[in-house]
Amino acid sequence: MIVARGQITISVTKDGQYPVQEFAKSTSSTVAPTSGWAKTPPACSTTEYLWMRTGVVIPPATSPASWTTVRIGAINGATGAKGDKGDTGPTGSQGIPGTSQFFHVKYSANANGNPMSDTPNTYIGTAVTTSATAPTSYTSYKWVQLKGAQGVKGDQGIQGPTGANGQTSYLHIKYSDNGTSFTANNGETPGAYIGQYVDFTATDSTVFSKYVWTKVKGDKGDQGDKGEQGEKGETGLPGSLLRPRGEWKANTNYVNNTQYRDTIIYNGNTYSCRADHNSGSSFDVTKWTLFNDFVNVATQLLVAQNATIDILGTSGLFVGNLSKTQGWLITGGSIKHNVTGLALTADGKLSLPATGAMLVGNKTFITDGKIVTDFIDVKTLEVEKLNGATGTFKRLQGTKLVNNKEVVMCEIGFSPTEGKMYFEGDMQHQGVFNDPIEGSRSYRFYTADLWCRGQFGHQQMTSLSFSSNSTCDFFAHIYNYGTDTFYHKYGKAGQPIDCVFLEGSGNNVAYICDSPRRKMVTVVVVPVIP
Q1: Which residues contact 40 (CB under 8 A, 6 or more apart)?
Q2: How far is it between the farthest Cα atoms of the chain?
């Protein structure tokens, strides 16, 4: 919708092209001026004519390749003498209140305007109404053609004036649909690409590579079907940062490196830098890539709900120093340090590499997969194996579950103030030690001094009993263990034999076996008294 009063100038562009017009004056009514052209009409004297020329600029060029010139004004007559001031007329009656007028524009591919849209096309329709709402019927608009059809190739033009070096320059133009071959009619039919070159030969060259080709952006096609999900690639290194530089400027350094990739605006289009360079006095399209799909947002505060930040399709964001030698990469829902490898994974886990370390209070707490610290203060510590050189304890307990409740069955206590250890519970010290020199023996208890407040040692002597009413030989094994028979008896583990009993009326002989020297063994004969 356009609301305007006074003079209205409408410019319609398509495929990046835009029209321009210039004015000049001349004393000739048939020959156009060759200089003095400007954007605004000049004031003409009574001996001068007003001329206008129009053309179309095709980016990246900044001026039309050709002009159409026409005389639009005649010589003004001489100015008459100034007349006397007239009497003031009577006050007029109240005028009718003015009405706002609104100018509406639509486009269509057809001459009658049906159907119409807001997208520039071959035909333009205009309507002036008193309503701010644009008419919805194509019949309400006046339709005119913006761009004529391709005409028949004209005859060879008049040769231009001879240059200073005696040669005349010729501009040659051809078209291509694919950028590799000419269109129909030997490249004269307009296509998606335009090729140009200038030389001193009037005849167009038929060599495709001799032309400099530029793609002309066509109408946007319908969206295609969504493709299948591809395989996920490996995470790449952080890319360069887009750096908007505003309008293109001459004699300026532009870069495309691992740190920055400059973008500029030129003639209404956005371009990205192809390679590092210093700009010259004119725009060089070979140093830039058209980047109109890029939208630059510059703001001190960005407020968004449930927003997803996509950095050039990588779904990643790097936060670190400018040289990117140290920092954090946020991608795929995880945060990972690019040097140490420490990561907060997408599933909410803290991952530390084997060679990494974690500091707490500026001290190493975890390194090489181990906890390394001077002190651990915990209420309950459960470990399967405790291996240490030195340490301090207050109490060691032996517990078991009774009716799903943990009950202390025995305990070793440590009293630093008394310098004592307390044993609560029965102590059992028995078993066999396989001495490589002395052979198997019972475990021993060594002490420098022993104080006992109650009964110490055997409550009674450990003994073996043999009984027979006939003459027999009996074998009492004092230390070795075995299975008892009628003739051979053995002591129990940890209970060496002190006494042997011979019972019965037989004439019995007792053999003391496995006893060391100076071991006292008591043999008691229990006679049978009739």
Answers
A1: 23
A2: 186
Tokens of 405: 């409740």
CA distance 44 to 155: 36
Q: What is the DSSP string of 285-331?
A: GGGEEE-TT------S----SS----STTS-EEEEE-TT-SSEEEEE
Which residues, at least 6 apart from 231, have a Cβ–Cβ distance to it below 8 Å? none
Instruction: Collect all residues with Cβ–Cβ distance below 8 Å to 337 and sequence separation of at least 6.
Output: 326, 327, 328, 329, 343
The structure tokens listed for 239 are: 């890319």
Q: What is the pTM of this model?
A: 0.26
Counted residue by residue, the chain has a size of 530
Residue in the structure block whose two tokens are 């400099």: 212
Dihedral angle, C-alpha 339, 345, 348, 352, nearest 10 ° = -40
Distances from the Cα of 244 to the Cαs of 254, 284, 291, 294, in angstroms? 11, 18, 12, 10
Chain mean position to CA 252: 31
The tokens describing 387, both together, are: 């291996």
Task: Indicate whether 11 pLDDT > 50.
Answer: no
Q: Please name each of the domains of the chain with its CATH number.
A: 102-145 (no CATH), 170-215 (no CATH), 244-298 (2.10.10), 395-424 (no CATH), 463-526 (no CATH)
Whose tokens are 């440590």? That residue is 414
- Which two structure tokens, joined as six digits, stand for 285? 């399209």
The predicted-structure confidence for 12-37, as pLDDT tens digits, reads as follows 445 567 888 899 998 888 888 988 88
Could you give the CA distance from residue 512 to residue 474 in angstroms, rounded to a whole number?
Answer: 9
Under DSSP, is residue 53 helix (H, G, I), strand (E, B) or coil?
A: strand
